[in-house]
Design goal:
Length: 290
């Protein structure tokens, strides 16, 4: 990987630190079925950070710890160790995620809030960890905030084997059973400095996380974007969006709303340098890390 496992940014009095878990390099068409390698090649600004010399797109899996005052808020919890998933990349991983968290001064017991932008397997994994053959909450002193609309959707598909809800069974249901879950509205304000913004489509209750302090703003986008390529091609449906058309509308509206320097964009799946600005380009928008 290029870049550090942990890296911090400040927004006023707030510090945001990413915890890297793992990465993948893949053909663009795996994520965006209608995209071609040629379309990716056209956007020179994607190199070298976001596309390999061979033209594969690079996707990172990372969590963000947001700290201010005495708050320690974890945004998304990656894939997690020891889980069994449909994809080999995510199966029985053994990463140093918890050690890295401790190394930045935020051991699991210090986290007071866990937020999941949505309930896909790569955003809920570290909600739990394996202890004596049981999935137990990784963050025992935290309230876990799940979107009410998001849970309403997943609850209905939970019994459907075809949708492979194993990640809900091992990474969400144990949190409910432990009494640590709170269901919140899609515009819920967690603190003066941090609130949710509804950005539906990728999943029905998907949210982004807005951070503001000292007149500065940042947004952890979640999976509105899987890759900065989507700034230039916001209308291409993604293979993993549940409501693809709504996701495209949300993406376009978000890019328009925050273009320029209105908010620092923190891309949940963007490789290092991970953060940047949405700027207008000849074709729609591009991601500027300057
Ligand atoms: Zn994701």
């Amino acid at each position: 990987m290029a870049g550090e496992r942990t890296k911090s940014w400040t927004v006023g009095d707030v510090t945001i630190t990413r915890i890297y878990e793992l990465q993948d390099q893949t053909d663009c068409s795996f994520l965006l079925p209608d995209a071609t390698d040629e379309m990716v090649r056209k956007h020179a600004w994607l190199r070298p950070h976001f596309v390999t010399p061979e033209g594969k797109i690079i996707v990172w899996f990372q969590a963000f710890v947001v700290t201010f005052g005495n708050r320690r808020i974890m945004v998304d919890t990656c894939v997690g160790n020891d889980k069994v998933r449909e994809f080999e990349l995510f199966t029985k991983t053994r990463t140093s995620f918890l050690e890295d968290l401790a190394a930045i001064g935020c051991p699991p017991e210090s986290i007071d809030t866990v937020l999941c932008t949505h309930l896909h397997l790569d955003h809920v994994g570290w909600n739990t960890r394996l202890e004596n053959g049981r999935w137990v909450p990784t963050f025992p002193n935290a309230r876990y905030l799940f979107g009410r609309a998001e849970w309403e959707y997943w609850k209905t598909v939970l019994p459907e084997e075809s949708i492979r809800p194993q990640h809900l069974i091992d990474s969400v249901v144990p949190i409910l059973d432990a009494g640590l879950a709170d269901f919140v509205e899609s515009d819920h304000r967690v603190a003066e400095e941090l609130w949710l913004e509804p950005t539906p489509g990728h999943t029905p209750g998907h949210v982004s996380v807005h951070i503001a302090s000292g007149g500065q703003h940042a947004i952890i986008s979640g999976d509105i974007f899987h890759h900065p390529f989507q700034f230039a091609e916001p209308d291409l449906p993604s293979a993993f969006c549940i409501q693809a058309q709504q996701a495209c509308q949300t993406r376009r509206a978000f890019l328009s709303r925050y273009e320029g320097r209105k908010a620092l964009l923190i891309g949940s799946h963007f490789p290092d340098p991970t953060v940047g600005w949405i700027v207008r380009d000849t074709r729609n928008w591009r991601f500027s890390t300057d």
